[in-house]
Design goal:
Belongs to the RnpA family. Its EC number is 3.1.26.5. Consists of a catalytic RNA component (M1 or rnpB) and a protein subunit. It catalyses: Endonucleolytic cleavage of RNA, removing 5'-extranucleotides from tRNA precursor. There is one protein chain. This protein is an alpha+beta fold. α2 crosses α3. The longest helix has 18 residues. The protein is globular, with a radius of gyration of 13 Å. The two termini are 21 Å apart.
Length: 112
Amino acid sequence: MLARGNRITRGADYRSVVRGGSRCPAAHTVTHVVSTSEQRPPRFGFIVSKQVGGAVVRNTVRRRLKAICAEALPEVRPGADVVIRALPAAASVDFATLRTEVIRCLERKAAA
């Protein structure tokens, strides 16, 4: 689970990352990353819309993404803001595929 300090909670922060961040598209997710010069832990946010599925499916996808990001937390540079948008296909993919996809994007855009 991601600690409170590792989560993006304000809508304005989500918008600034999605609009101004570098994108890494993949088959089941789109990862947006903004690097700041602040010396703070990296923060993560997740966007899982109703297009992905019902509430149970959306929460399952969100929990999977949180687990992947918690695992990758030590490799992400300090001050980075990351927003991961789940695409509708993320509902039917297995955890290993989703993990590979997100880790690849984090390594390309947010590695320490």
